[in-house]
Amino acid sequence: MAMLENSDLKMSILFFFFCTLIGFSSSARVADKIYDDIQGDMACFKRFNGTHEIGCSSDYFGNVGVLYIPQNETDAENAITNGKHHPYILAVTPTLFTRKLLMTAKNSENVKGIVLLDSQLKQIESSASTTCPSHEYGLYNYSSGSKYSNYCPATESWNSAGNSLLYESFNFPIFLIQKEESIQAIKSCFKTYSSSDPSQLEWPLCAIQLHSNMFGTTNSEVCLRRKHNAVLAAANYCDEIHDYNIIAPLNPMVGELEDSSVIVIAARADAATMFDNISPGADAAVTGLVTLLAVAEALSSYKTEIAQSNKNIMFVLFEGEVWDYLGSTTMTYDMNAGKFPIKPSNSSDDSDQVSQFNFNNIDYFLELSQIGKQSGSKSNIYLYNDPISDDGIDEVNALNKKVREALISSGNIFNVSVTKPVDKNSESYPLPPSSVQSFLKYINISGTVMADHAGDYANRQYQSYMDDYKNVDYTSSSNATDESDKLHQHLGRIASTVASAVYKLTSNSDTPIEANYTLINELLLCFLRDVNCTLFREHAGDLLGYTGYFTQRPAKMYASVFRGEDILTNISLYLMGHFLGDAVNGTKEDCVSNSKSAIQKFFLPLVGENGTCIESTARLHSAISPAFTIPGYNFSSGEYPTWTESGWSVTKARLFLKPNPAEEVGLVVGGMLFIIFTLVISYWANEKADVLFERMPDPAFC
Ligand SMILES: *[C@@H]1O[C@H](CO)[C@@H](O)[C@H](O)[C@H]1NC(C)=O
Ligand SMILES: *[C@@H]1O[C@H](CO)[C@@H](O)[C@H](O)[C@H]1NC(C)=O
Ligand SMILES: *[C@@H]1O[C@H](CO)[C@@H](O)[C@H](O)[C@H]1NC(C)=O
Ligand SMILES: *[C@@H]1O[C@H](CO)[C@@H](O)[C@H](O)[C@H]1NC(C)=O
Ligand SMILES: *[C@@H]1O[C@H](CO)[C@@H](O)[C@H](O)[C@H]1NC(C)=O
Q1: Mean of the per-residue pLDDT values of the chain
Q2: What residues does ligand 4 touch, defined as CB less than 6 Å away?
Q3: DSSP letter at 154?
Q4: Which of 3, 8, 316, 626 has its CA 20 to 30 A from that of 360?
């Protein structure tokens, strides 16, 4: 009898252990079922300037909250203040993603994160910039005695749609989700588990985990110091925002340049948003950039004529302008220090080095700002000059007038109406935010900014992820250019107007110069819809090897950090070089140049049967703020830009079912009791092993 009882016991104990083992080993698969990964690559991240931090970060292991999808603002505020299942992670549509809601969430303990669900159905006003972009680093704050010093913040604003969210700091993560399957997963999880009357809600509830932990903190000075003091160099607290300006004279610049002999035509090449991996900057950057490339291409056929006029034209693309005019600040700083575009060399090896270029060489400065927003079939362009120098200095006034008249008369040929707008008091506007302001801090030259707005920005999405092809009504599809598209026709008219006006100003000839409209359409397609386009692939050079870059998506216009986004910068450089330069014989091995030379060479393997070597004047100029190179720079002085970007390891988001917190505690306590129980059992089993392990039962039924 005793023996029989013992073997029954043996059987049940072994059966119990075996089943427990299986239970543990299958728990991994259960986790897969509860956690559902959703789109997590467009997270808001931290950036720093000399005194502040902006952007978002999650806790080290990510933030977790019960999903709540508010129907309207009241609903959202109710959940934040009275919700019973906090902490929450709110999922909102663009309409609810307002400054008011975000600030309420920021100041509440009950919100652990926000996801912005955007199915891209409609465009709504959503500029994340300020109402006076980069005012503190512009000309008028700098010339603080003038009547324009407080123009923007006090009297009018350039960007009345600006909500400044880009410059806020949040201690929780914010993710943008655009992939439809992720949006549906969130909505259906909420509908299934959470949507009934909030007071009746029962666990388990749908929850979200957002992971976007940032390594940097506080401000650029602190995080750079930490980075440099780090014992283990691996810690990536933050990196300076750093990219390259592109400069490209029409004819090579060698020897000493004459005063007032170079016309600068400039545009900005960068834009930003709150989120990683998306900065389309369609109106903010792409329209001006593409038009500038088209003007360069059109004028390249007139190099000889322009050289005979003893003038030259320098095309400039500024990088990092969003970040307190990083590109133009660096360029003017280097010019003032006598090391632009390169530090001059006395070595005989560098006898063909590019000329030193300084402020006095500038004849006048023409800047293409935002120029894509249009209504109707006629193109309207507004011109701005700095009223302080325009009113105060006769030479500047005369030059500004000459430039304006040239633009107006060539505008007449190409159906572009060019006007100089006045404000509500019928007075001249000061310059809108523009790169030429950095130059006017050093010298009173003639500067003209061309834009699509008279006063307040026509672009209501300035520095928003919504400043994309839809914002500028670009109609070409992802793969093919659409000849009926209005945007490329509009930019084509402007490029033709600018090219003809500049030609008249240099050679005094009335010959109209028409830009290449097809090329503009192809460029727009590449920047706004598909960086994997033929034109970009052909102009990527060796960078084509970065296959991850070349997928169908819009260009990311963010300036980023060293080696961050330089593929796009190089493509722009090669496009510019190819448009202005000459194809020469030579293999890839022969196609190299001294970095100081006026003529630079680069190789395009996909152009021509065996690849093509291009000789051109186009070169890069490093845009790293003087704040990071001047020893002992005072980071709170506001003299130079001080922006850095935090490092992080990964950003990801997932959905799961969260049980009742009481149950969770119960589960942990239960688990611990269970462990103690099994320890006792196994101790006992060990003691009785001689009786227990006489015969092995077959645990076939667990
Ligand atoms: C840094 O950014 C914050 C927020 O935009 C601003 O208030 C502050 O003046 C900036 N600091 C410097 C040194 O530019
Ligand atoms: C901008 O204006 C403010 C207020 O007048 C002043 O404190 C600050 O120093 C100015 N910044 C620069 C760079 O001049
Ligand atoms: C430009 O001209 C204005 C008006 O004459 C003057 O106040 C200002 O100081 C000048 N700027 C420079 C950099 O010389
Ligand atoms: C564009 O091209 C890709 C690959 O060649 C193709 O998969 C896609 O369907 C095309 N899209 C359109 C809108 O034609
Ligand atoms: C390309 O290379 C091949 C083989 O060297 C040569 O026969 C051909 O002529 C080259 N084509 C051109 C356009 O140079």
Answers
A1: 90
A2: 477-479
A3: I
A4: 626
